[in-house]
Amino acid sequence: MMHMTFYWGRSVTLLFDSWQTDTWLSYTLTLIACLIFSVFYQYMEDRRLRFKLLSSSTASNGAVDATPLLNKKIFAGGSRWSVGRVAGSLLFGINSAIGYFLMLAIMSFNGGVFVAIIVGLSIGYLLFRSGEDEQVVVVDNPCACA
């Protein structure tokens, strides 16, 4: 039975029918996995934003290009397909998939899973995205986990 309200307990089915917890050990390991994936999500988001900043600054900078491979065109001619754009799209896709998996995990409505993911996102933000060298980059992100 799928819960439609928050509940607290060690019995949870997470993402797949085969990922079920019935003991405190399996529940604790599931919460640790949720926390680690949440931290990893913030790490990947930081890498993606830094990569986008790096590839866009080299494209608009009139000085010597520090990252020539990012602006290399994949197809000949005036194509907009550069290595940097394709790699950025790949990073966005991976990060979106992780974000949606986290959202679906929260939709299990288990209180422990919810707390583990929120704590993991907070720890990941503290470790990877709250530095003093943070630059403001406006990015459209459809994921609710950002």
The gross shape turns out to be: elongated
Q: Which secondary-structure class do the elements indicate?
A: mainly alpha
Mean pLDDT, to the nearest integer, reads: 80
Number of strands: 2
Strand arrangement within the widest β-sheet reads: 1-2
Low-confidence stretches: 58-64
Largest sheet: 2 strands, antiparallel
Rounded to an integer, what's the Rg over CA atoms?
Answer: 19 Å
N-C termini distance: 29 Å
Write a short abstract of this structure.
The chain is mainly alpha-helical and 146 residues long.
Provide structural commentary.
The chain is mainly alpha-helical and 146 residues long. The protein has a domain of 92 residues. Helices cover 55% and strands 3% of the residues. Strands 1-2 form a two-stranded antiparallel sheet. Helix 1 runs antiparallel to helix 2 and helix 1 packs parallel to helix 3. The longest helix is centred in the first third of the chain and has 37 residues. It is elongated and about 50 Å long. The chain starts with 11 loop residues before the first strand and ends in a 17-residue tail after the last helix.
